[in-house]
């Protein structure tokens, strides 16, 4: 019960931070939409098997499964999603990290993942 309550508090903090993050992004003229938020173990495992995650959803739980991560995609001025690494993702990554979050694009830069997960923004809090 305590673990569940703790995650509820951390999830609430994440939601508050993400709302502020959205505001900050807009001040830089960057628009985005959320493409992935909550995942089941099965959904997480599928991404793991596709080589898009290091978390299998069972032995290693993703913050998506805890409601403390979001994948986003930037929307350009014509309303189209931008599915490639552009400087705006780096800007959003810096903003999120300054707010205490973890940006997936950093993992690739540091050699922690074989894929550039520029879309991933997760809570930097530990349980």
Describe what you observe in this structure.
The chain has 127 residues and is an alpha+beta fold. The chain has four helices and five strands. Strands 1, 2, 3, 4 and 5 form a five-stranded antiparallel beta sheet that branches. The radius of gyration is 14 Å and the shape is globular. It starts with a helix and ends in a 5-residue tail after the last strand. The mean pLDDT is 94.
Q: Write down the overall geometry.
A: globular
H/E element sequence: HEHEEHEHE
Cα Rg? 14 Å
Mean pLDDT: 94
Key traits:
alpha+beta
How would you summarize what this structure contains?
With 127 residues, the protein is of the alpha+beta class.
Question: Which helices and strands occur, and which strands form pairs?
Answer:
Layout: H1 2-27, E1 31-36, H2 41-49, E2 69-75, E3 81-82, H3 87-98, E4 102-103, H4 104-109, E5 120-122
Antiparallel strand pairs: 1-2, 2-3, 2-5, 4-5
């Amino acid at each position: 019960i305590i673990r569940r309550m703790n995650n509820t508090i951390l999830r609430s903090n994440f939601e508050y931070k993400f709302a502020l993050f959205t505001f900050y992004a807009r001040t830089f003229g960057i628009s985005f939409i959320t493409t992935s938020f909550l995942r089941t173990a099965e959904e997480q495992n599928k991404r793991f098997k596709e080589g898009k995650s290091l978390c299998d959803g069972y032995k290693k739980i993703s913050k998506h499964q805890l409601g403390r991560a979001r994948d986003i995609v930037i929307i350009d001025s014509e309303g189209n999603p931008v599915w490639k690494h552009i400087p705006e993702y780096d800007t959003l990554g810096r903003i999120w990290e300054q707010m205490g979050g973890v940006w997936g694009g950093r993992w690739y830069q540091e050699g922690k993942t074989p894929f550039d997960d520029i879309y991933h923004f997760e809570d930097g809090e530990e349980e």
